[in-house]
Amino acid sequence: MSRLIQARIAPIAGLFFALTLLAGCALTMRDQPRDDPFEPSAFFADGASARVPVADTVARGQLQTDTLFATGRIGRDFAETFPFTITLETLERGHERYDIFCSPCHGLVGEGNGLVTEYGMPNPPSFHDPDLRDEPSGYYFALITGGTRVMPSYASRIPPADRWAIVAYIRALQLSQSADLSQVPADQLPLLQQTDTITK
Question: How many structural domains are present in the chain?
């Protein structure tokens, strides 16, 4: 074998050998000694591998000191009020989150005619039905948190502050669909009339 061929093969062979060694030495999390959940263990005197959490232990990020903010309730009753002041920024955030999580079923203005209803899903009730419109704000927060019937829980997908922002936006939708001209600020009437002319 010529020296030229040897010079070309040697680095490739060395690299292959090094990679083989590295692959053989690699350790992953699954290779370490561990106990599966509820698997018996000889390490503890009671034979269990899992320990009971210390009394009153709270998982990081799960401490709830504000019951209204975390549950939407005051005592046993759904709250009529919000746990913080609603601002334009809150409504904008609620609008964004509503469009992502709620509008596929409830529709863009909350009439219960979202896109999924075109594919066989039942229509949810309209937010503009008088009975539903009269429900307290905490009721909506609790529904988003716990779900109901066909609607799943969104507790793990939407943080509490965003759930409240969505409720605020739903309230804004309800106001927008049930308001009359006497409730529109005078300086906004020309804009409203211009929009009405454009849509006709």
Answer: 1
Taking the C-alpha atoms of residue 114 and residue 156, their distance in angstroms, rounded to an integer, is 22
DSSP 107-127: -TTSSS--GGGGGTPPPPPPT
pLDDT tens, residue by residue, 103-153: 999 999 999 999 988 888 889 999 999 999 999 999 999 999 999 888 999
Give the Cβ contact number of residue 69 at 10 Å: 17
Does some domain include residue 137?
Answer: yes
- What's the angle, vertex CA 114, arms to CA 111 and CA 117, rounded to 5? 115
- Which residues have a Cβ under 8 Å from the Cβ of 139 and sit 6 or more positions away? 72, 78
Residue 19 lies in a domain: no
> β-strand 73-74 against 77-78: which pairing, if any?
antiparallel
* 165 inside domain: yes
Q: Domain range for residue 142?
A: 104-179
